[in-house]
Write a structure and sequence with these properties.
This protein has 718 residues and is mostly helical. The protein has two domains: 137 residues, no CATH class; 536 residues, no CATH class. 68% of the residues lie in helices and 2% in strands.
Length: 718
């Protein structure tokens, strides 16, 4: 029997794709003002986020998929900046007056201070406001405004999500310390020079001739940019190929996930609600006029502010939101209340939520039985399920099985995509994508080939490079799927591709050169708490109701955000490292993480065979995942969604499961006793929890910025 989407449903989808995000006014689509505001806020996030967590040691704003930095800046945009643009557009006199006052205040402040520190995020925010107000003068004179419409707000939010995936954990704070650490931390005891120097490539490691002392110890007035050019150019080739492949993959899978499988995309709901509340005829965004929202905002704002004030004055009481207790045998449970996780989890189906927290508890029981049975693996991991290597293999196998099964289910769509790319299917529609299917397939193919070629040029065996890149992309797809469907704001892969290839397949098969290069891949394939593919997959959900011309312009915004995020964050991290010293900024990013790369490389250079026990668990994980998927599909009474199985033993699930369970219980109760209408109205309260946590983090970073307080981290997941 031929399976296809009914023609009536296709017509409905087409009508939705032709709709716009124009709101109630006449302005619609994208314009220069959207790119102007999006570019600045992207740059501000790119420099502000690493500044906050390194120089201020404040809350992490871009470490996980919940992206509190993007939410906070978007709230500032709709509540303050956009409202200001609307207000000054009421009359040319008002606009000129506000521009003049802002300019005078700006220059008076820096005249009083006596110098301009361009590395302070506050300088750039003030400069943007002044510049925007003066730009508004001729715009208002022509009867227009710098205020953004709904489509332009979506563009800005997508750009912020992209930058969030690059400016800290996703790239910069992993890359720069890793490529400088070899010479600074090398000693006769760790044998890096003796064992790794013959294998390394001069082109991808930073060498300024002084063992990178300035980068790690600080006190350097002039950054040696010339020494950075060659290694960063080589890494830029690889990373741009990786990002091209990620963007293309997100585009190729968008229709399958969004229109055919109807995934929930909970992480986009706050942004969508803010955009939907925008009305160019009203000064205040409609989203902000809902009492239930502010009831939700007040809770994390209260608890977080008590914690922040306690850091200023220990006499102020604070409420502990983390508890621990025994569970089964020697296994421990962590009970942590995360308001953002609670809010996001309330927006997913109860089956998905139940699968997440129940499979986590089951993984604890399984871990205890494995320990009692004395079953061990020869592998030793730092990332993923590091304390239970066999569960890491099991989760990795389940994740790969989930992805491969998903690609098989979507084979009809994938066939259409590739036929369209080859010019064999003119009837297939791709005008509603941010790039054509031909361009997407070319970017995916070209990106994968460049990555394989890059690893081969650095000394990796060709077949190893091909297998490794394929596994890496499958893992990225798997975690992106988990984020899009389960809405987990904090999740990591149970097993990373470098460990699966090096320790699973065995070093005697892949060679010493491959071991070193795959260890260097820890930079982009290890601690993947946030990455571009997952964030862009969610960003594409935001443009669902945008007109086709604007969608293609969004692609330009994505490319712009990638470059702004990468260059801006590198600039800020370099400045802080050379000024304050990297070892004084972040112990793990500047020491623990880089040392892990080279220590593991030395350890795994010893000839190792296949980890048969681990690979057996990998196979078992895949088989169990297939059985769980079958049960959900064919057993109507089956209560658990299988998406929780691959990530059940994940380190981040220790911190997330309790909030997910609470959200599941609340949603079940509200649906049972209040019905769908009550659930619909209650969503604003839970969106308020998400916004309130981001707002609390952001407000206290602003306060600490002016007071000079350091170490005031509030809502961090570790």
């Amino acid at each position: 029997m031929k399976r296809s989407i009914p023609s009536l449903y296709n017509t409905y989808l087409a009508s939705r794709q032709e709709s716009t995000l124009s709101g109630t006014g006449a302005r619609s689509g994208l314009s220069v003002r959207g790119f102007w505001v999006g570019s600045f806020l992207s740059f501000f996030l790119a420099i502000g986020s690493p500044y906050a967590n390194m120089a201020m040691r404040a809350s992490n704003m871009s470490f996980d998929f919940n992206t509190p930095g993007a939410i906070f800046l978007f709230f500032v945009l709709i509540a303050l900046i956009n409202a200001l643009f609307k207000w000054v557009a009421r009359s040319i006199g008002l606009c000129v007056g506000m521009a003049g006052l802002a300019g005078l205040a700006f220059f008076a402040h820096y005249y009083h201070v006596g110098n301009v520190d361009i590395y302070k995020p506050g300088f750039w925010l003030m400069a943007f406001i002044v510049a925007s107000l003066w730009i508004s003068v001729p715009v208002v004179q022509r009867g227009a405004s710098l205020a953004l419409n709904r489509a332009e707000l979506v563009l800005v939010y997508v750009m912020l999500m992209v930058v969030s995936s690059l400016c800290t954990m996703g790239m910069t704070q992993q890359l720069l310390p890793a490529i400088t650490a070899f010479f600074y931390y090398a000693t006769p005891e760790n044998k890096w020079v003796e064992k790794l120097l013959p294998l390394r490539s001069e082109r991808v490691l930073f060498d300024d001739g002084q063992q990178s002392e300035g980068f790690y110890e600080g006190g350097v007035a002039e950054i040696p940019y010339a020494a950075w050019v060659e290694p960063l150019l080589w890494w830029a080739i690889f990373l741009l190929a990786l990002y091209a492949a990620m963007v293309a993959t997100a585009v190729i899978l968008r229709r399958q996930w969004m229109e055919r499988e109807r995934l929930a995309y909970p992480l986009t709901q706050v942004g969508l609600a803010m955009v939907a509340g925008e009305d160019e005829n009203r000064l205040l965004n409609g989203f902000l006029r809902r009492p239930a929202l502010w009831c939700g905002v007040a809770i994390p704002l209260l608890f977080g502010s008590l914690t922040a004030l306690h850091r200023y004055d220990p006499s102020v009481p604070m409420v502990n939101l983390v508890w621990h207790s025994g569970f089964f045998g020697s296994q421990q449970l962590e009970y942590r209340i995360s308001f953002a996780l609670l809010g996001f989890s309330y927006l997913i189906s109860t089956q998905v939520a139940a699968g997440i927290w129940i499979f986590h508890l089951l993984s604890k029981i399984e871990a205890e039985f494995i320990a009692l049975a004395g079953i061990k693996s020869s592998s030793k991991f730092v990332y993923g399920v590091s304390d239970q290597p066999l569960l890491a293999y099991q989760g990795g196998g389940a994740l790969l099985a989930m992805v491969l099964l998903g690609l098989w289910v979507g084979r009809g769509h994938l066939k259409d995509v590739f036929n369209k790319a080859l010019g064999r299917a003119p009837e297939v529609e791709d005008g509603d994508e941010i790039m054509s299917y031909r361009a997407a397939v070319l970017c995916l193919t070209g990106g994968v080939l460049v990555m394989i070629g890059w690893l081969w040029a650095m000394g990796t065996t060709l077949w190893v490079a091909a297998v490794f890149i394929a596994l890496s992309m499958l893992i990225f797809i798997g975690i992106s799927r988990v984020v899009a469907e389960a809405g987990l704001a904090a999740v990591r892969s149970p097993m990373i591709a470098p460990d699966l290839v090096i320790q699973g397949i065995g070093t005697q098969w892949i060679g010493a050169g491959s071991v070193f290069n795959l260890s260097m891949a820890y930079i982009w394939a290890a601690d993947i708490r946030i990455f571009l593919m997952a964030m862009l997959a969610n960003g594409l959900k935001l443009i669902e109701d945008m007109d086709r011309r604007s969608r293609r312009l969004v692609f330009r915004g994505v490319v712009l955000a990638i470059f702004i995020g990468a260059l801006g964050s590198c600039w800020m991290v370099m400045h802080m490292a050379y000024k304050y010293g990297g070892i004084n900024l972040d112990g793990w990013r500047f020491r623990g993480g880089p040392e892990t790369i080279f220590t593991n490389a030395v350890r795994t250079l010893e000839p190792l065979g296949v980890d048969w026990m681990g690979m057996s668990f990998l196979a078992v994980g895949g088989v169990v995942m297939l059985l769980l998927t079958w049960a959900r599909q064919y057993l109507l009474w089956w209560p658990l969604h299988p998406i929780g199985f691959p990530i059940g033993a994940n380190f981040m699930m220790n911190k997330a499961w309790c909030s997910v369970a609470i959200a599941w219980l609340l949603k079940k109760a509200i649906l049972r006793y209040g019905g769908a209408a009550r659930y619909q109205s209650s969503q604003y309260f839970f969106l308020g929890l998400i916004l309130g946590e981001a707002l609390c983090n952001g407000l206290w970073i602003v306060i600490d910025y002016f007071t000079g307080k350091v170490g005031n981290a509030i809502f961090n997941l570790g």
